[in-house]
Amino acid sequence: MQEYQRKFIELALSKGVLKFGSFVLKSGRTSPYFFNAGGFNTGEDLATLGSCYAHALVDAGISFDVLFGPAYKGIPLACATAMALSSEHNRNVPWCFNRKEKKDHGEGGNLVGAPLKGDILLVDDVITAGTAIRESEALIKENGAHFKAAIIALNRMEKGKGEKSAIAEAEEQIGIKIISIVTFDDLLKYIENDDKLKEHIPAMLKYRKQYGA
Ligand code: OMP
């Protein structure tokens, strides 16, 4: 595991973003863990988070023209990533976001920031069934841009509608590459080496057996 991945998991645990217990997901599955990105709620959290997204992006070696943060949760994530790419990797990339409600005065439209043009990289927190990402796909297409890739914080590595992972299904159907800061397996590796968290391993393994892809 890379240093930024360890740092990310530690921040998520210390902020209660990553919790163990019993949680009903949007899919109806009952999961032994939950990731709530909204808990990264201070300036320092956001700076660390942006740095982790930027590291993962640079590691993946993906080229793109514009970072896109889908409303609402993706907005601070794309902003923090753009700032970290500039301050830590000397890459000054344009970024933009959408608003959910259309504005008919002032500058109009539902996009704010840089023009949504060229190869788009979407920044978001989690993809489970891929519902949210498909809405962004439509918006990107409407604007004549090319949806190239997405980066998320956590890849839960779960089955989608069939036997393949939801991520693989979304990658195939939308024709994009999806990368993540950490995966379910990274998380498992981390908790295996943590005396306090070890107790959650059986439930995590059981869940992976049932829903893992
Ligand atoms: P999709 O739009 O189906 O891809 O699901 C993404 C959503 O799952 C997120 O926006 C959350 O509402 C929710 N979610 C989490 O945020 N964290 C998790 O660990 C699991 C879920 C989930 O419900 O699957």
TrEMBL record:
Enzyme superclass (EC): transferase
Catalytically driven reaction(s): orotidine 5'-phosphate + diphosphate = orotate + 5-phospho-alpha-D-ribose 1-diphosphate
GO cellular component: cytoplasm
All residue ranges annotated as the Phosphoribosyltransferase domain in the record: 60-161
Cofactors (names): Mg(2+)
GO terms for biological process, alphabetical: 'de novo' pyrimidine nucleobase biosynthetic process; 'de novo' UMP biosynthetic process; pyrimidine ribonucleoside biosynthetic process
Protein's pathway: Pyrimidine metabolism; UMP biosynthesis via de novo pathway; UMP from orotate: step 1/2
Residues holding 5-phospho-alpha-D-ribose 1-diphosphate: 26, 72-73, 99-100, 103, 105, 124-132
Keywords: Glycosyltransferase, Magnesium, Pyrimidine biosynthesis, Transferase
EC number: 2.4.2.10
Keyword Ubl conjugation recorded: no
Gene Ontology molecular function, alphabetical: magnesium ion binding; orotate phosphoribosyltransferase activity
Residues the entry annotates as binding orotate: 34-35, 128, 156
Purpose: Catalyzes the transfer of a ribosyl phosphate group from 5-phosphoribose 1-diphosphate to orotate, leading to the formation of orotidine monophosphate (OMP).
Family of the protein in this entry: Belongs to the purine/pyrimidine phosphoribosyltransferase family. PyrE subfamily.
HAMAP family named in the record: PyrE
Subunit architecture: Homodimer.
Name of the featured protein: Orotate phosphoribosyltransferase
